[in-house]
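Q: Mind making up any chain with structure tokens?
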Amino acid sequence: MSTDLSKLPVQMLRKIPIFKGLSPSRVKSIFGLCMHKSYKLGSQVCRSNSPSDEIYILISGQLSIVTGAGIRVATIFPVTTVGEMGVITGEPRSATVEASKQSNIFVVKKRAFVGMLSDDGDMRATVYKNIIDFLSVKLNNDNVRLCDQQIERNEFEEQVSSLQSQLLKERSRSDAAVEMAAEQGDIPTEQVEMRID
């Protein structure tokens, strides 16, 4: 993939959520900070708990978000950013990012990006508003997923409770049948249980 940013349509670049609403000249100035990197399938873009010193802009390919426990929790498709929250908050990476397909990524160094935001109050306000909007949507989606999981859990617990109740009834019926067989056959209950087993 060519690293000539002038060949990328500004409209495509403006689709990136944190750059929404920025003028074409501001988007171009941000992309002027970018370095191109290519990642092969399975290679790590960043590791969990590492410093958040870069923003990654996925131009092509596909990325996976992997927790510290090795669980894939999300798939990232172009055109979007990864790692912007850590750059803004200063917190270490919360997950590992891996290339799940051959991927082309533009990397923006934290120092340069934060410096640009410091020099341009309007750009900073727009980017921060976009991040707040993104977090709001993410929080709403997480709340919906959490509610769905709670409903599934409640249904599962009801099923388990019902099965336990049925099991107790069947056990009670089985115990009564063993006692009746022992009484009618005039043999000890233990022998009836042994024969059943």
Notes: Residues 121-185 form the longest helix (65 residues).
